[in-house]
Amino acid sequence: MKFGIFYELQLPRPWTEDGELTLYQNALDQVELADKLGYDFAWEVEHHFLEEYSHSPAPEVFLSAASQRTKNIRLAHGIMQLTTTHPARCAERIAALDLVSRGRVEFGTGESASSTELEPFGVAYEEKRAIWEEAIRAIIPMFKDGASEHHGKYFDMPLRRVLPKPIQKPHPPLWVACSALETIEMAGRRGLGALAFQFLSADAAHAWVHAYYNSFVKRQDKLADYQVNPKIALTSYFMCAETDEEARRRADGIPFFQFALRFYGQSATRERPAPGTVNLWDEYEKWKRENPEGLERALRGGLIGSPETIRRKLRRFETSHIDQVILLNQAGKNTHAHICESLELFAREVMPTYRRRRNGKSRCWRARSSSKRSIPIRSATATARIQCNCDRLRPSRCNPRPLILL
Question: What is the pTM for the complete model shown?
Answer without folding.
Answer: 0.90
